[in-house]
Amino acid sequence: MHKDDCIFCKIALGKVPAHKIYEDDDVIAFLDISQTTKGHTLVIPKEHFDNYLATPQEVMHKVMDVAQHIGQAQIYVLGAKGVNILTNVNKEAGQSVMHFHVHVIPRYISKEGFRIEMKENPNIKDLSLPALAEQIKKGL
Ligand code: DGP
Questions:
Q1: Ligand 1, residues at Cβ distance < 6 Å
Q2: Rounded Cα–Cα distance for residues 130 and 104 (Å)
Q3: What value does the mean pLDDT take over residues 63-76?
Q4: In Å, how far are 55, 79, 120, 137, 139 from 11, measured between CA atoms?
Q5: Is 5 helix (H, G, I), strand (E, B) or coil?
Q6: Which one from 40, 48, 101, 103 is the annotated catalytic residue?
Q7: C-alpha span between 66 and 41 (Å, rounded)
Q8: Beta bridge mates, 103
Q9: Which of 8, 44, 80, 127 could bond to 74 as cystine, CB 3.0-4.6 Å?
Q10: Active site residue 101
């Protein structure tokens, strides 16, 4: 299924041009219009799913397989020294295009372009890690 107002559906259908790197029946990969680093690529399912969490497992696996291959190619062909594989879910996490996509971002120099920094949040207080782990476990 496709959504009429979705830019990535339009790319998947060939209605909007993109610099394609890979395509099969289910998945397409193309250069991100905003090159965070040289070779920044997006991998998407052709069918519309809003995000990673809303995507059927079989489709998600196909997308991740292609993302792995692209990351390997970025190292072998572009000479990247590292790769970030990233997907955002919902606007609170930075998702701006609501069609599941995986960013494959080659890294040449550390801290170039962008940086994901996970540090302890001093505003989180009175946290019980055992209770939190149990809470999340209940949702599985
Ligand atoms: P996110 O913030 O995770 O939803 O990333 C969306 C990315 O999609 C962002 O890096 C820019 C890219 N993007 C948006 N519109 C287009 C487009 O029309 N063509 C291409 N190639 N990339 C696009």
A1: 7, 18, 30-34, 42, 88, 94-97
A2: 34
A3: 98
A4: 18, 28, 39, 38, 35
A5: coil
A6: 101
A7: 11
A8: 42, 86
A9: 80
A10: yes
